[in-house]
Specification:
Helix content is 34%, strand content 22%. The chain is α+β, with helices and mostly antiparallel strands. The strands form 5 sheets. Strands 7-17-14-10-13-12-11 form a 7-stranded mixed β-sheet. It has a 4-stranded mixed β-sheet with strand order 3-15-16-6, sandwiched between helices. The longest helix has 22 residues.
Length: 489
C-alpha cells in the first residue's frame, strides 16, 4: 500500500459505492470514508495484531523512520557500520568513494559516536606502558620492550577511529549474548596492556588468646593474609575478509546487516573456543587442539592457556580418563577433585550451584541427558533460568552443549592429521570464579579497496586477555577446573 494516501483510498471506495448503490454513496462523504479507513487501519496496526506481524520483515530504529535506511530495515548500528567502512576506505586513499551525503546526514543525526585520530589512540597506549615501567610493573626491560612491540602491531588504521559507536558495542555484546561459555565468565576493562589481579591464597589464622590484664601485657601474635597475583596480557585478534565488487555505497548496502551478523557469530564462536581450548604450545606435537601437527602461527588458541589445558596439562590430578560410558559417579568424583585443603578452596561445591558449570561436546551432552539422574530442560518449569545451549542439570549444576568442544582421541587431545581418530567424548567442568576475561580494546573495523583485483578487504580487530587464578602462582595450583575425557559414545 506504499504511495497510496488516505484521501485517494477514500475516493476509490466512494467510487465503488457509486457503482453498487448510488443512494448509499451520496450519504457517504469523503470525510466519513476517511474516518472509517483510519479507524480500520489503526485496529490493524496494533503491535499485537497478527496481520501486522505477518507484514513486518524487519524493524528499523525509531530515529530512522521515514528515511531510505528505514526501508532497508537498518538499525543505528548498521548506519554507523556502513559510514565507518566507507569513510575508512576514502581516508586510506584506496577509494575515492566515501559516504554519500544522505548517509553522512543520517549518521550525524542519529549517532553518538565520534571520530578520533588513530595516532592519538595509539599514543594513549604508549603513555600507559611508560607509566607501568616507571612504577616497576614490568619484571625486566625486555618485558617492557615486548609490550611496546605488541602495541606497535596492536593499533593500526587509516585516519580516524570511530569512538563510542553503537555498532562496535553491539558486535561485542551481541557476541557475548550468543556465546555459551564466554558470557559466563566475569570480565574487567584493562586500562593497561598488562594487568595484575590480586587473588587470595592462604587465610589469616584466627587465634585463641587470653584476656590482657597487665599494663605491660605482650602483644597478641600477628597473622598474615596470603595473597598472590594473576597476570593478564592483552592479545590481538583479527578477522580478515575479502569480497569482490566496487567499494561504493550502492553495492555494499545490501551486505551491511549480513556482514555485521556474521562478524558477531564469528566472535561468539572464537571467544568460546579461546577460553575453552587455549594452548600456547607451538610445536609439532603436544598442543591439545592439534596433537600431531604444528599449529599455524596465527591459530587463535595459541594466544593463552585455557580451561581444558588446566586439567589435561597444568594439573593432571584434576582430570580422569573415563574409559567407558559416562555415569553420575564420574561427576561426583570430579567435584571431589576440585578442592584445595591447603588454601581452603572448595571449587567443586560452590554456595551458588550455577557457579559450577559442565561443558560437553554435543554428543556427550546428549548421552549425559539420557542418564536417569539428570534433570532435563523440559522439566525445569516455566520460571527456570536456562543458559545458552543448556541440556540439563547434573547434581544441581548446569550442563551445556558446545560445538567448540570437539571429540578427541583417548588421551583427551585432538588429532589433526587423522580426524577419524577423534571418537571419544569429553566434559570440561569449571567454577566461574576461577577465571576472568580482560577487555583491552573492543572491536575495531577497517576497510581497504584493492583496485588491481576489484576487491575490498575488511578487517576486524580486538585485544583481550584471559586470566586463570591460582593461589600458588603456578598453573599447577589450579583447582577450579577438571576434565573428563576418553568417554565412550
Amino acid at each position: 500500500m506504499s504511495g497510496i494516501t488516505l484521501e485517494a483510498l477514500a475516493a476509490d471506495i466512494r467510487q465503488r459505492f457509486e457503482g453498487v448503490n448510488a443512494d448509499l454513496a451520496e450519504k457517504m462523504s469523503d470525510q466519513r470514508l476517511r474516518a472509517l479507513v483510519e479507524e480500520t487501519l489503526q485496529g490493524m496496526l496494533t503491535e499485537d495484531n497478527e496481520f501486522l506481524r505477518k507484514m513486518k520483515f524487519g524493524r528499523a530504529d525509531q530515529q530512522l523512520i521515514g528515511g531510505k535506511y528505514a526501508r532497508l530495515g537498518w538499525t543505528v548500528a548498521d548506519v554507523e557500520f556502513c559510514h565507518d567502512l566507507l569513510r575508512a576506505a576514502k581516508e586510506s586513499g584506496r577509494s575515492k568513494q566515501g559516504p554519500s551525503e544522505e548517509l553522512t546526514r543520517t549518521f550525524n543525526a542519529i549517532s553518538e559516536g565520534r571520530y578520533r585520530e588513530t595516532a592519538l589512540v595509539r599514543g594513549d597506549g604508549y603513555e600507559q606502558l611508560d607509566k607501568m615501567w616507571r612504577e616497576g610493573r614490568f619484571g625486566s626491560f625486555r618485558d617492557y620492550e615486548r609490550a611496546v612491540r605488541a602495541m606497535d602491531t596492536a593499533e593500526s588504521g587509516f585516519g580516524s577511529q570511530l569512538i563510542g559507536a553503537q555498532y562496535v558495542g553491539e558486535l561485542w555484546t551481541g557476541a557475548q549474548a550468543q556465546a555459551r561459555v564466554f558470557n559466563l565468565i566475569n570480565s574487567f576493562q584493562m586500562t593497561d596492556p598488562t594487568a595484575y589481579l590480586p587473588v587470595e591464597a592462604g587465610l589469616p589464622a584466627l587465634l585463641f588468646v587470653g584476656e590482657s590484664t597487665d599494663n605491660n601485657s605482650a602483644n597478641y601474635a600477628t597473622t598474615k593474609t596470603g595473597s598472590n597475583r594473576v597476570q593478564v596480557n592483552a592479545r590481538k585478534f583479527v578477522m580478515h575478509q575479502m569480497w569482490s565488487g566496487e567499494m561504493e555505497e550502492d553495492s555494499i548496502t545490501p551486505f551491511i546487516p549480513f556482514l555485521r551478523r556474521q562478524a558477531m557469530r564469528s566472535l561468539a564462536h572464537h571467544m568460546d573456543s579461546l577460553v575453552l581450548n587455549g594452548d600456547t604450545t607451538d610445536a609439532a606435537t603436544g598442543n591439545i587442539n592439534q596433537d600431531d601437527e604444528d599449529p599455524g602461527g596465527t591459530e587463535h588458541f595459541l594466544a593463552f592457556d585455557g580451561i581444558r589445558h588446566a586439567g589435561l596439562v597444568d594439573n593432571t590430578g584434576n582430570s580422569k580418563s573415563v574409559a567407558g560410558a559416562i555415569s553420575l559417579n564420574e561427576f561426583r568424583a570430579q567435584k571431589g577433585r576440585m578442592l584445595s585443603t591447603t588454601y581452603k578452596h572448595d571449587w567443586g561445591h560452590p554456595n551458588d550451584p550455577s557457579d559450577l558449570v559442565y561443558i560437553a561436546d554435543p554428543e556427550t551432552a546428549d548421552a549425559v541427558a539420557f542418564l536417569d539422574e539428570v534433570l532435563t530442560v523440559d522439566k525445569f518449569g516455566p520460571g527456570a533460568t536456562i543458559l545458552n545451549g543448556q541440556q540439563g542439570r547434573v547434581l544441581s549444576h548446569p550442563l551445556i552443549s558446545s560445538i567448540d568442544l570437539s571429540k578427541t582421541e583417548a588421551d583427551g587431545k585432538v588429532s589433526f592429521d587423522t580426524p577419524a581418530n577423534n571418537t571419544k567424548g569429553q566434559i570440561v567442568t569449571f567454577n566461574r570464579g576461577g577465571c576472568v576475561v580482560g577487555n583491552r580494546r573492543s572491536v575495531q573495523v577497517e576497510t581497504e579497496r584493492i583496485p588491481a583485483t576489484d576487491q575490498t578487504r575488511i578487517v576486524y580487530s580486538l585485544r583481550m586477555g584471559f586470566g586463570r587464578f591460582t593461589p600458588t602462582g603456578a598453573a599447577s595450583g589450579i583447582e577450579w577446573a577438571d576434565v573428563l575425557y576418553n568417554i565412550d559414545l
